[in-house]
Design a protein that fits this description.
homodimer, 434 Repressor (Amino-terminal Domain), Rossmann fold, six-stranded mixed β-sheet, DNA-binding
Chain lengths: 334, 334
DNA sequence: TTGAAAGCGCTAACAG
DNA sequence: CTGTTAGCGCTTTCAA
């Protein structure tokens, strides 16, 4: 006869033929219990392997070190690589990794409402998600130590990159390689907010291009949906309208890959007719032999963990900001 | 008006003009609470500085609402896609997702030692990892409901595919497309155990090929390390030694991709000189326009969750086995 | 979507 | 010394 739930004082009381009050007394060593009764109860306790549930849980929770990660649902490989970094760093520690995947900003906010209350978390890492001030305050009020990755906020620690600088480096690199006609491919998220990473990359790219004495007219900018197939289709049309040779800076590796596909479809030679420079350095970039700007995705997760843990053990209240370097990885598409 | 004891949900309920049940719901992010109600409650919570009492919670809670997933560290995209399925399915439920990534079998076993004891888990999903009988017993003894994905065990529920059938389908498909010279590329894990998925795929492939009156001599089998670059290098040599045209069945999409790269390097036309059929249908397969055998990776995770949850609510002790179908996805490489 | 009400496992006051 | 019983603060049916 097996039981599926842990024994309670009621079970102990039944086995020992006493009331639950008596069991409670021997457990808590309150008042005096007749020695014989006492030992009967203790035997029952031992034979059942009884552990007071509330204590057990309270203790478990206190002991259990848990850090939570809120991440967009793993649609894009970049999220996965960041998460992988988090998992790698946390694997070295006694902390448990709890994942909250988010599919909408409403979803995100509801997590943020409840996590500080009943999340039982020691710390929180928020990946690639933008936080409203309101929720930042909540986090702060409830003393839930938090590190942001990709979208910084002045009141919280974060690990980020300089997107504008990334655009600049792209321009410099392509220029140095001898290209003089440029284009940019970004995704539609660009349109919504001025401060989105992709807009910043475009800004940096454009500025540097004009500084170099070239130019980037609007007709050489393609804003496509975040979907590799649709992007490819639009890229085909886009490329047809362009004068070659051309050097394209794609705001993400995935878009760069769409471009490569489009180029193949049009029988363009890479990099002779069309040079493609990506951004991210996904695992996949290597498979496509894509030249790209590495933004150290895995490391961003690792560093977030390190920052979080160090603040946990040493809660000095200064917000810490870690800026990751960018690095051009030369492969075959430029 | 000051109070001397810390606020309870009753206080919150009073201030928010709702019932304690509603407060509990917003705290736990359960079921749906009308957004307006929700924010009223949250305001009350914040204004009172309410913090739920852990012990009271522990008392009232019957389930932990935590399900654990043990997975190989996300090196291969196939693990990620399985995990993605788990996350997707769990996202619909009030269960928390705890991830345990594993980098060695020792590592796995140490998790398996402690998880049933102190894991505080309602259930466990084990992805793409092989279990010793000993640990299976442990899981059973401690009544930790478990579902296995990819490596089944007779005493536990599992979701799996028929790898040998996959090999057979590969042969049939390539044969039907008119190919008559075949090769196989697998990875070195094949060597260690006879029952590994990749060996099974090879077995099924080989058998069916001879049934079809063709043959697959050992010199047309390449066993390469699980590393896309090394595989590519070896594939180049391998292809040089082969008579063309040739149809290759790669045991995984990643290896298929290595083959595509090798073919490009050798200026072979795909599929005219070399047909490549993959196995998995990773997201990436589409980007490479790879014909492949889909094994429904995401679904495997989703189904594992469904199986687990259904056993949790309805603990009928029959072990359940779910066999996923395979599906040929025709794209451009065959 | 909500509220009423019945637990959850345990402690403590009160009888006996 | 021991049992009965009323809570503790929270969760979770079940109806409405």
């Amino acid at each position: 006869m097996t039981r599926n739930s842990p024994p309670t004082i009621y079970d102990v009381a039944t086995v020992a033929h006493v009331s639950i009050a008596t069991v409670s007394r021997v457990i808590n060593n309150l008042e005096k219990v007749k020695p014989e009764t006492r030992s009967v109860v203790l035997e029952a306790i031992d034979s059942l392997g009884f552990v007071p549930k509330a204590d057990a849980r309270a203790r478990a929770i206190r002991t259990q070190r848990r850090i939570g990660v809120v991440t967009p649902f793993f649609t894009a490989p970049s999220f996965v690589q960041r998460l992988r970094g988090v998992a790698a760093a946390l694997g070295q520690t006694p902390y448990e990794l709890v994942i909250y995947t988010v599919t909408s900003s409403k979803h995100l906010n509801s997590y943020l409402d409840t996590l500080p209350l009943t999340g039982n978390l020691d710390g929180l890492i928020i990946l690639s998600l933008e936080l409203d001030d309101h929720y930042v305050e909540r986090l702060l009020d409830h003393h839930l130590e938090t590190v942001l990755v990709e979208y910084p906020h002045p009141l919280l620690s974060s690990v980020e990159i300089d997107n504008e600088e990334g655009g600049k480096q792209a321009a410099d690199y392509l220029h140095k390689r001898g290209y003089r006609r440029f284009a940019f491919v970004g995704d539609t998220s660009t349109a919504e907010y001025g401060i989105h990473p992709i807009s910043l990359r475009l800004n940096g790219f454009r500025k540097e291009i004009s500084r170099l004495g070239c130019n980037l007219p609007d007709c050489q900018i393609l804003i496509a949906p975040y979907d590799i197939n649709k992007t490819r289709e639009q890229a085909v049309e886009f490329l047809k309208s362009q004068e070659l040779p051309l050097a394209i800076f794609a705001a993400t590796d995935l878009q760069a890959i769409s471009l490569i596909q489009a180029a193949r479809q049009l029988n363009l030679r890479i990099p002779e007719d069309l040079a493609v420079l990506g951004f991210d350095d996904l695992d996949m970039a290597e498979y496509f032999n894509l030249t790209t700007i590495r933004q150290h995705l895995d490391e961003s997760g690792e560093i977030a963990v390190e920052m979080l843990l160090s603040r946990l053990t040493n809660p000095n209240r200064t917000v810490q900001i870690s800026k990751l370097p960018l690095e051009i990885i030369e492969r075959g598409t430029t």
